[in-house]
Amino acid sequence: MADLLRRLGLPVLAGLLLSIAGAATVIVMRLPSTGETIEIDRPAPAATESKEIVVYVTGAVARPGVYSLRGGSRMEDLVKAAGGLTAEANAEAINLAARMRDEMHAHVPKVGEVSASPGTDLLAQKLSVNAASARQLEDLPGVGEVTAKRIVDYRSKNGPFKSVEELKDLKLVNASTFEKIKDLIAP
User: What is the topology classification, in CATH, of domain 47-125?
Assistant: First the structure.
């Protein structure tokens, strides 16, 4: 065989290899398809980061009031827009990294001011399941696109929820998800 290859030379050998590769390609192309498609996960563009949100801030900031912010803004952005913290602000009681949501009311407490619900983030305004968009519901822990759509669809067909427990009772969220979100939502 080695003698044959020496006599035929490199051009013939290259042609032979190309023929084999071409035949293999034709065979592979003719194999029946499994019908499966391959999906590549790409991060979806954050629609809320380009949308404007409106947030109300009260308490120990220089200029309490209503502010328009870029979607995806954080408490730090809101505090800056409101002129910064006052000397009386309890800076340790707020989470400057918290993301702001449209229609949110953020309160910056003064030193010594008692939170209405001790042990909770003073900036974590409860999300109304009767007013929230599907996208806002998706920000809740354990709530994905399908669950958020199910909640919005149910609400559209049947009217507003009377209590947050209805989400669990109607099996719109499972028990473990409900435990994660029950303190973050309101009717």
Answer: Ubiquitin-like (UB roll) (3.10.20)
Find where tokens 């003073």 sit: 122
Distance CA 7, CA 172 (A): 77
Q: Is the overall model pTM greater than 0.70, yes or no? A: no
- The residue behind tokens 């034709």 is 26
What are the pLDDT digits (tens) for 158-167?
A: 999 999 999 9
What is the phi-psi region of residue 147: left when phi exceeds 0, alpha when psi lies from -120 to 50, beta otherwise? alpha
* Domain extents in the chain: 47-125, 128-186
The answer to whether the CB of 135 falls within 8 A of the CB of 48 is yes
Angle at 133 between CA 69 and CA 143, to 5 degrees: 110
CATH of domain 128-186: 1.10.150.310
The answer to whether the beta carbons of residues 180 and 142 sit under 8 Å apart is yes
